[in-house]
Amino acid sequence: MQSLKDRTYAIEAAFLSPYACKSKNTLGRDREEEPCAMRTEFQRDRDRIIYCKSFRRLKNKTQVFFSPEGDHYITRLTHTLDVSQIARSIARALSLNEDLAEAIALGHDLGHTPFGHSGERILDKLVPTGFKHNVQSVRVVEVLEKDGNGLNLTKEVRDGILHHPKSGTPATLEGKCVSYADRVAYINHDLDDAIRAGILTENDVPKDVRAILGNTSRERINTAISSIYRNSAGKNSVSMERETEQASERLREFMFERVYFSPTAKGEEEKAERMLTETYSYFIKNPDKLPESFLKLLDKFSKEQVVCDYLSSMTDRYAVYTFNKIFVPKGWTFIDESN
Questions:
Q1: C-alpha span between 239 and 117 (Å, rounded)
Q2: pLDDT tens digits for range 224-268
């Protein structure tokens, strides 16, 4: 009887685009492993990411607004799920490998800092070698997960994670799907959050942008996916139509001006910078205070790198807790001696 994995191979060979990255042709892992009888290597990568600790912590990491109290604001986890859904939709439309696109999407932000992109900018200033969340995401899956052993993911998934930013050059079309999906997702759900927070209204979005992309997130996401399909179907490339791309870039610039770099956002960033700077300096001076799992890394990596690993792994709430534990005096319980 044909195994489930072999059946998947046969389906991919029959129905995927000639430009798709077939699971059977993976470049493999750095460390050889016994293959799974049921799952392809990309499916195994997806499962490893979903069940790792870094993925679970994404639920308490900021997307835009620091530790929002409302139940419906986007977190780094819900952003990741959005990116995964959009990337799979693009990959399906173009007959590419959905499993590979999904694995890359689920892992693309594992190395993100607390306090969103503000945290990334802060660590980039603090760490001598600089900080980029895509590079840190690769470090998470190669080194930090599983007590320093990493997840041993395939080369294609790690490449897609590393090159998912707009400036990146993914080696696979599935990686390019994730790069577009990331931009489409964060622009639209960050806009939704800004409207929910009362910072913007839908009518504040430039009229020429709305005329091309649509008036709601649903419409704009559909416009983006449809544009990529029309411009990329049957080709060895993934790209948007020029008009849609330009309108998306104008919307992105609008968000940076009105939301990401707004006085409200920058004011909170100043607080986060003081907190992360003091915490970073404390552990640089006192590396013996690092948790045991990070202490072990000091045998292989610089003190600055390991402290960066620890801080970037924190959720928003844990970063605040750690700062308070180190720097905020505890209250005293006084005994009433008047009796």
A1: 25
A2: 999 999 999 999 999 999 999 999 999 999 999 998 887 766 677
Q: Is 315's pLDDT higher than 80? A: yes
The tokens for 238 are: 């993934």
CB 71 within 8 A of CB 92: no
Euclidean distance between CA atoms 301 and 189, whole angstroms = 37
Assigned token pair, 16: 């995927």
Q: Where are the alpha helices (DSSP H) in 51-115?
A: 53-57, 76-93, 98-107
Burial (CB < 10 A; 0-12, 13-18, 19+), residue 65, is buried
Each residue's pLDDT tens digit, 74-111:
789 999 999 999 999 999 999 999 999 999 999 999 99
DSSP string, 295-326: HGGGGTS-HHHHHHHHHHH--HHHHHHHHHHH
SS3 62: strand
Longest Cα pair distance anywhere in the chain, in angstroms?
Answer: 88
**Alpha-carbon separation of residue 195 from 173, 200, 218, 264 (angstroms):** 33, 5, 15, 14
pTM of this prediction? 0.93
Instruction: Give me 40's structure tokens.
Output: 């392809």
